[in-house]
Amino acid sequence: MLTIVSESAERALTSRLRLAVVRLNRRLRAQRTNSSVTLTQISALSCLHKCGPLTPGELAAKEGVQPPSMTRVIAALEELGYASRSPHPSDGRQAIVALTDDGRAYIEADISAREAWLDKRLAELDDEDRAVLARAADIIDRMAGNQN
Amino acid sequence: MLTIVSESAERALTSRLRLAVVRLNRRLRAQRTNSSVTLTQISALSCLHKCGPLTPGELAAKEGVQPPSMTRVIAALEELGYASRSPHPSDGRQAIVALTDDGRAYIEADISAREAWLDKRLAELDDEDRAVLARAADIIDRMAGNQN
DNA sequence: CACAATGGTTAGCATACCTCACTAATATGT
DNA sequence: ACATATTAGTGAGGTATGCTAACCATTGTG
Radius of gyration over alpha carbons of chain A, in Å? Predict the structure, then answer.
C-alpha cells in the first residue's frame, strides 16, 4: 500500500525505477514490428500535434535530443509524408516543421492501434493502479523534461 | 479498453505513459556518457548480483532479451573484467556467467554514482510523489512481464 | 550410432542516440 | 560597409542495443 514506504524499498527506488523504465521501453519498441513509423517518430509527431508547427531546434529541445538527431527524424517523417518543412518567414536560417493532413490523421487515428499492447496491459489493471500510473507519468515527464 | 475514471487525464494514459517512459529512458542513457559501462550492462550486472551465477540463456530470459543480445553484453562485461564465463559442470553446451570481484565491487559501490542524476531528481520530489513512483515501478515491472 | 533438440555464438541488419565538422544566414563591432 | 562572430540546421561517422537467421557443439534418445 501507498501509505508507508519501507526504508529498504525507498533506498532501492532509484534502481527499481530505472530498471522498470528500461524494460518497459524495450517492450514498447518491440511492439511496433509491422509499422513503418518508429517510436521516436511517433514521439515527435505527438509533439507536433500537441504544440503545433515548430522549428527543428525547438522540436529537438522539447524531445530532449540533439539537433542532428532530430534532423534525421524529421527527414524520415517528411519522406513518409507525415510532416512538411517550410521556410521561416523572417529568419532564413530556420525552418518550420508542421504536420501534414496525413500526419494529423495518422497521429489522431492510428496511434491507438500501435499502442494496443500497452493498452491491453493497462486494461488488465484495476482503477487504482491506473491512477498510480497516471500520476507517475506526470511526475516522470516533469523529471525528464526539466533540463539538467 | 480503458475504463474512464477521471476525464481527460485518464483518457490519454496510454500515450502519456509511453511518452514518459521513452523520454526518461532517453535521459537515463544520456547520463552515462563518461562511463565505460552502459545501462544495459548495468542491468545485467544487477541481475547477476541479485540472482548469483547464471547461464547466458537464463540471464537473457530474466532481462527479457534474446540470447544473441545477451551474448554481446556478456562479452563486454568479460572484456571489462566484471564478469567471467566458466564451463558448466555437467552440460558442455552451457556456460556459467558470474560476477568477478571487480564486478561485485563495481555493482555494489559504483552504481549509485551513475544513478546520481535520477537520484537527485527523486530527492527533489516529495514523499507522496516518491511513493507513487515506487508503486508505479512495481506495476510497470509486472506489466513488462519480468519474471522477477 | 544416427539424428533431432538444446544452448550458445556469429553474422548481418535496423533503430536511435551521440559528437564533430560544415554550410548558410543573421547579427555585431569598428 | 565589411569582416567577424554567432546561430540554425545538416551530414558524416561512431556507439549502443535490439532483432532474426544460420551455424557449431553437445546432449540425449530412438
Answer: 18
Instruction: Assign a CATH topology to domain A37-110.
Output: Arc Repressor Mutant, subunit A (1.10.10)
d(CA A52, CA B48): 46
Distance from CA of B40 to the nearest CA of A (A): 8
Check pLDDT > 90 for residue B21: no
* Mean of per-residue pLDDT scores for chain A: 79
Q: Where are the domains of chain A?
A: 37-110
* Alpha helix ranges (H) inside B31-126: 39-51, 56-63, 67-80, 101-109, 111-114, 116-123
pLDDT beyond 60 at A61 = yes
pLDDT tens readout for residues B69-81: 999 999 999 999 9
Residue B11 has pLDDT above 50, yes or no: no
Q: Provide the grid cell at B57.
A: 540463456
Contact between chains at A139 and B119 (C-beta distance less than 8 A): no
Q: Which CATH architecture has domain B37-109?
A: Orthogonal Bundle (1.10)
Q: Which one, of B23, B67, B139, lies nearest residue A20 by Cα?
A: B139
Measured between beta carbons, which residues in chain A are less than 8 angstroms from residue B21? 21, 24-25, 28, 140
Contacts of B1 in chain A (CB under 8 A): 119, 123
